[in-house]
Design a protein that fits this description.
Layout (H helix, E strand, L loop, with lengths): L1 H71 L3 H14 L5 E6 L4 E4 L5 H4 L17 E6 L6 E10 L5 E10 L5 H7 L8 E6 L4 E5 L5 H8 L9 E6 L5 E9 L4 E8 H48 L10 H5 L5 H26 L12 H14 L3 E8 L2 H8 L1 H18 L5 E4 L4 E6 L4 H17 L1 E2 L4 E2 L2 E8 L6 H17 L5 E3 L7
Parallel strand pairs: 16-17
Antiparallel strand pairs: 1-2, 1-5, 3-4, 4-5, 6-7, 6-10, 8-9, 9-10, 11-13, 11-16, 12-13, 14-15
Amino acid sequence: MFTVLIALAVLSVAIGFFNALYAGYQVQKAQVVKNSLASNVAYAEKLSEFINLYIDALHRQLKTSASRLGAAGGTPQAVAAELSRVAAQGQGVSAVLLADAGGTIIARSDSSPAPLSAVSTLAELGMLTHRPADWVVPCCQHDGQRAALMLVEPVPGKDGAPAGFVAAVVVLERGSRLDRVIGEHPYGDGASVYLVNVDGRVLYSRGGGPDENVLSLVKADVSPTSGPGSAQVLDAAGDPVLAGYAPVTKGKWAVVIQRPLDQVLSPLKTLLAESLRFAIPAVIVTLILVCGLAYAIARPLARLTSAMGSPDAVDRQGPQASLLKTWYFEADKLREALIATLAQHRHEVGRLNTQTMTDPMTGLMNRRALELRFEELVAAGTPFAVIALDLDHFKRVNDVFGHPVGDKVLILVAKTLSDSVRQQDRPFRVGGEEFVVVVPAPTPDVALHTAERIRADIARKAMPDGVGHATVSVGVALWPQHGKTAQAVVKCADEALYASKSAGRDRVTLWKEDLSP
C-alpha cells in the first residue's frame, strides 16, 4: 500500500510537471511558428513594395527619356549623354540601351558592364517581342550567377509607330544597391531570400539555394493579382522550413523568404532548457514533500488493511479494531464506514438477488416494488392515492390480433402511462393488463385529476398494428381516508375499477362506501 501510494505520488508529480512543460512548449512553438510565418510574409511584402516602387520610378525616367529622344533626334553624342544621364539617375541601373525598331542596339550608356557591352540585340536579353511600356523582362546571365531585370519603353516615331526602344537593364550582382536591399535581411537564423517567376524559375537568391518544395508551393500561386501567402513545408532532406512570399505586381514574380524551423525554434529550445534548469530544485522539493505526506497518509491505511485481514476486523469490540490507532479523522471514519458498508452490501445483494424490481416486458416496476413504495409512504405518513387501471376488452385484442400484438399494446400503454404522470408519481404493472399508479395526493381532487389525465392520454393514443384506440377503466382510492392499510386501499381501488367497467368502461370512479359488496 505504502509503495503504491508513494509511486503514484511521484508519478503524478512527474507527469504533471512534464505535461505542463510539454504543453507550454507546444503552445509557444505554435505561436512562434505563426509569428515567424507572419513576419516572413510581412518582410516579403515590404521587399515586393520596394521593388514595385523602384520599377515605377525607373519606368517614369525611361518614359521621359524616350520622349526626349523621339522629339530631339540628336547627334550620337547627345544620345549617349541622355542614356548616361538616365543610367546615373536610376540607382542600381547597370546600363541604358537604345535599339532601333528591329531591336538592334545602336547606342548604350557609358560604363556598361562587359557582358552588356557585348550584347547587340534586345532579343539576346530575353526580349523576343517588342512591346510598349509597362513590360518588365526578368532574365538570367549565362554564368548563372547574376539575374537581370529589363524595362523597355518605345521611342515615339513620326507616323505613330515606334522609332526604336530605350531599355534599362538592372543586374542583381553582389554588392549592388538592389542586392543589398534584398539580401541584407534582418534575420540571422539561416534565412534565404530569393526571387522566382511564374514558372518556378529562380531569378535571384541570397542566403542559400531555394528548396524545390517551396518553389512548387509558390509557383502555383504566383501572379500579379494573387496575394501574399505562407506555409510550412519539408525541404529535400525532410526538415521543415517556414516560407512566406508576396507577388511583385510589376512582373510575374514573387519575393520568397525561407527559414529553417529548427533555427526559428532555437531560442525557444534554449528558453525551455533554462526553464527546466530553474524548475528542477522546486520539483525535487515538491517530490520530497509529496512523498512525506504520502507516507503519513498511507501508514494508517496499511495498518487498517492489516487489521481487516483479522477474523475480528468486522467486530467493533475485537482487539484489532480497538487497538488500531490513526492520526487523522478520515482514517478512523474509513474503518467504521468500511465495516458498515460490508454489512449493508451483504444485505442489499441478498435482497436484490431474491427479488427483481422491474417488469421485464414493459419496463415498469412490478408488484414487489409496489409493496416497497407502500411501505415507504406509510412509514413517512404521506397521504397517497392508488389509481388502478385495466385495459378494456384486452382479451379481444389477443384473440383477434394475437398475443405479440397484445404485448405491443401493453408496452405502448406502459409508455403512455409513464409520460402522463408526474415525477413523484410511480406507475406499476401488477398483472396481465392491470396497472397501478401510486400518487402522493392529500385530496381526492388531485388524484381524480391525475386519473382522468391518464385515461384521456391512453384513449387518444393510437395502438400499433391496426388495433386502433384502446380505453381503460380506472378506479381511485386514497390512504388513509379509504383504508388503514395500503392493501385495504388497493382493494377499494379495485372495487372502484369494477364499478367503472359496470358503468360502461372508459371512465374514472372514486371509491365510496356504497361500492363495497
